[in-house]
């Protein structure tokens, strides 16, 4: 849900490959076993071909404190993947002539700036200009508390507009919260009921629904950040993300959803083409997700320490879904490995090495670091034998030492190199470098 500076970018090399009839099961088992043995990842994966599940795997814990292992039936919050479901519901409404994508949102939300200019389709494609409320630093101070529709509309309206409608595209969870309210008003049903009626029940998605408080007795996973140890993350109340991120599911259910969506079982062909239409990088509840010479469609998600991704490759009728409730690695790197195994692309089983430091060794790095290049600060603290970093308005995360004065955060593909004498730190990520100075 919340966008951050430390965002991993999927970088893939183009080459000609095809679906490989190889022993991917053993290869993937070896890969995930290596992740589990090194305590690098907790979560589940599923892959289908021609509508049939061909691989599933679950590692780690659904509940660390109670020592409950994850299984293929463990359910995870999927964050912004919920937007794909919401887009389907909106297009269902247009197919039933209940909504028109070109109509403006003024009749529902007259207090929203530019409401008389913003169309439903612009909400769907992130072209509304409506400010993303999860970008605000205060968001994490109230996201665990229930909010009424009136309260959420006041928050969104207060955020104003970041750009003129349809002048560009910029991700905003606010768009899909508003789409939720449009759906509920149009059908006179809750978003939860609409999800079940139009998607979950027809497809047999028994593990997919709008979440409430996490219930581990119902196979619902808790989520964790690693800050020296796996520590439980607080829960966003479902009344806040709604159709932008309030669904819980499993990888197997997500592959079923993808197979049905791209197999024509949910929408008419013309509606699916609308979802797949990409402008400025954004589709309608979908993104293009390239893998080598293949173009898949899907979505990523993140909420409360959960991260998720699903994609469908129509040419090979392959669907793939991965969800984690705690990871020290990049989801993109894991996705590349899984798809490489399926397509017969070479990859390596990782070998994890550790550069050991004592708690006292971290003292020279501690403090607040600021940069002249961006309005963003990073605070470094320690927790036992772990160096902890926390960016402005973001959750804390644990860094892994790689060599003297050098650390990494694989989950975001970020590297940190300190110069204790100069009291500086260089952040390297995505091919760029930013210099920070200790205050």
Describe this structure in words.
- By secondary structure, this protein is α+β, with helices and mostly antiparallel strands.
- The protein has two domains: 12-352, Beta-lactamase (3-Layer(aba) Sandwich); 359-438, Beta Barrel (Lipocalin).
- 25% of the residues lie in helices and 26% in strands.
- It has helices at 24-37, 82-95, 120-124, 139-142, 149-159, 173-187, 191-203, 251-262, 269-276, 331-343; strands spanning 41-49, 52-59, 61-63, 68-69, 76-77, 209-210, 224-226, 230-232, 247-249, 287-291, 294-303, 306-313, 318-327, 367-370, 377-382, 387-391, 397-403, 406-409, 414-419, 424-429, 432-438.
- The strands form five sheets. Strands 14-15-16-17-18-19-20-21 form an eight-stranded antiparallel beta barrel.
- Helix 1 (24-37) packs antiparallel against helix 10 (331-343) and helix 5 runs antiparallel to helix 6.
- The longest helix has 15 residues, at 173-187.
- The two termini are 30 Å apart.
- The relative contact order is 0.17.
Q: Give the DSSP E fraction (strand runs of 2 or more residues).
A: 25-35%
User: Using DSSP, what is the number of strands?
Assistant: 21
* Average pLDDT rating: 92
The count of domains is 2
| Percent range of helical residues | 10-25%
Protein name: CubicO group peptidase (Beta-lactamase class C family)
Signal peptide: 1-20
Organism: Flavobacterium cutihirudinis
Keywords: Signal
